[in-house]
Amino acid sequence: MKTKTRKVLIIEDEGDLCLLINILLEGKGMEIEHVQSIAKAGEYLLQEKPSLILLDNRLPDGFGIDFLSIVKKEHPTTKVIMISGVDAAAEDVALENGADAFLKKPFTKAQLHETVTELLKTEDAITSPS
């Protein structure tokens, strides 16, 4: 059975980190898009329905945590991994607001892979017919 290509949206304003995440997830049956602001993410979500979003908390035009509830309301099945390096309290708030997982910067390749794999497995269980 051929696995379907999944859309992954990275909302992150640090170019180096985006490139790194892209490299780490490349070749895993994922079509990766990247935007650097909440505004651009909003435009993208009007056109596309990603399986997974990696959402940074501190963005040039606001906080990812605030955008999270909008994403979850409009795309309830989309999995969201919140990423933050500065805010220790952000993890609890992100999970309360609907994030499916939280990665604290800096995170390892293994942590990223494990989290992404786990969330997309859950999606498979929901979408595949029994």
Describe the structure.
It is a single chain. The protein is of the alpha/beta class and 130 residues long. It has one domain: Response regulator (Rossmann fold, 3-Layer(aba) Sandwich), CATH 3.40.50. The protein is built from 5 helices and 7 strands; from the N terminus they run βαβαβββαβαβα. The chain has helices spanning 15-25, 38-47, 64-74, 90-96, 109-127, and strands at 6-11, 30-35, 52-56, 58-59, 62-63, 79-84, 101-104. A 5-stranded parallel sheet has the order 2-1-3-6-7, sandwiched between helices. A hairpin with a 2-residue loop joins strand 4 (58-59) and strand 5 (62-63). The longest helix is centred in the last third of the chain and has 19 residues, at 109-127. It is globular. The relative contact order is 0.16. The model has no long low-confidence stretch (mean pLDDT 89).
Structure described in brief:
The protein is of the alpha/beta class. Helices cover 45% and strands 24% of the residues.
Distance between the termini: 15 Å
Radius of gyration: 14 Å
| Series of secondary-structure elements, N-terminal to C-terminal | EHEHEEEHEHEH
**Uncertain spans:** none
CATH topology: Rossmann fold
Mean pLDDT: 89
Strand order of the largest sheet: 2-1-3-6-7
CATH class: Alpha Beta
Strand content: 15-25%
Structural class: alpha/beta
- Please report the total strand number as a whole number: 7
Kindly give the count of domains: 1
Protein name: Response regulator
Keywords: Phosphoprotein
Pfam families: Response_reg
InterPro entries: Bact_response_regulator, CheY-like_superfamily, Sig_transdc_resp-reg_receiver
